[in-house]
């Protein structure tokens, strides 16, 4: 099944039900289908067709969802761009993806205009927040377009989304996710729309993240109303849950912790919440145990996965969050609360050693996955694809072990990716920025555990002989060249970095010595 069929089904079963609520505006499923059709016809009129790339640069909004379905209806590829990225990063992603059309919000227009000469393949710029000189205007092209349903001969193996993710190299990699990759998860884990069952799902995870996109697809297929928040803000989130009687939420641990610590939390009525799914970063046990206590009657799900697996591959179920039974049973459940759960039914998950052999119970190796949701590959990166997908197995880069009941526990990462509040950060990219500082001789970056963000970035630097630089100087240097969440939040000064005989920096030594908060 291809993903546009999700919207076709829900708009037939519950056409008048609200599909999207966003900043006071409401669209039904039939309305969402019509606007997506109009936009698809407008894009077709611009020459956008099967295999073409359509970019989106905007915080969460109804337009992000409409553009995805319009693009998918044409057999084109949706390219959601990180709205926190700097100009240089966006220039790379736009050119590398070969996007020929870009929808963008008002706050990004000046930046995109400044780089027009550097993105020669960009044929169409569409402003989604009112008119802008030299650009098409979103509502105008929808109003003028044909509302008829668009049907395209789409193969299930066609790429539906090209989603960028940080890798072990400085530049992000484009993950190709097919219609089948995306649809398989939804069809195996979500009940279809039911005219008698109404649910509301608050959407705060960014839509350039796989968790956000899967939340959209699950909601549309399931006939659930999406209550969309531009970006997470605790007070507004609680207001929306309370006033809209939201029943489902997806959060990263940082969001959940921030909610419970917010001054308004004790006063808000959040009792409508039936399910909270969390993931994208490790969840401290003390945070989830407190959440279980302060959200009585709410079921919790820990969803673990990555972009390359089209989201969730293992899950800690609501039943796993119920800590009851004998003292021995409670102890086991409390331990497993620190796990990422067990493999979902449509995915095979194992622990392999370096040679690709399965590890015994309770022994650490790399977490690998196999099934229909493994990505098609990395865009224009065959070598990276072949090193990540071997003999049909997706090597996640995460280390862990499996207990006798199939619960998987994380033990760190094979790669050095840093995850801050669910955002992947490439150490090499930050290191390249550090090396551009005139006073720095050599630098390395590691992640430091943090109770609020999961991890923060720490730079270990050696200055050039006679040079001077303060921690504040170095952080400010990075702030000007990197997205804010990528900049170091602490700096350690050393005489020299530890290296092996071949000159490779020994990150393990740095983590052992400087990896504590």
What's the short story on this structure?
The chain has 517 residues and is α/β, with parallel strands linked by helices. It contains 16 helices and 27 strands.
Structure notes:
The protein has 517 residues and is an alpha/beta fold. Helix content is 31%, strand content 27%. A nine-stranded mixed sheet has the order 2-1-11-10-12-13-14-15-16, with helices on both faces. Helix 10 crosses helix 11.
Main structural class: alpha/beta
For the termini, the CA-CA separation is: 47 Å
Q: How would a crystallographer describe the biggest sheet?
A: 9 strands, mixed
The helix fraction, in percent, is 25-40%
Q: How much of the sequence is in beta strands?
A: 25-35%
Continuous helix count: 16
What is the radius of gyration computed over CA atoms, rounded to a whole number of angstroms? 23 Å
Mean pLDDT: 93
List the helices and strands and how they pair.
Elements: H1 4-13, E1 18-22, E2 25-28, H2 29-45, E3 53-57, H3 62-73, E4 77-80, H4 87-97, E5 99-104, H5 109-114, E6 124-127, E7 136-137, H6 138-144, E8 159-165, E9 173-178, H7 179-189, E10 200-203, H8 210-222, E11 225-228, H9 234-244, E12 248-251, H10 253-261, E13 275-279, H11 285-294, E14 299-306, E15 311-316, H12 327-336, E16 342-343, E17 348-352, E18 365-370, E19 377-378, H13 382-388, E20 389-390, E21 393-402, E22 408-413, E23 418-420, E24 423-425, H14 427-435, E25 440-450, E26 454-463, H15 471-479, E27 490-493, H16 507-514
Helix pairs in contact: 1-2, 1-8, 2-3, 2-6, 7-8, 10-11
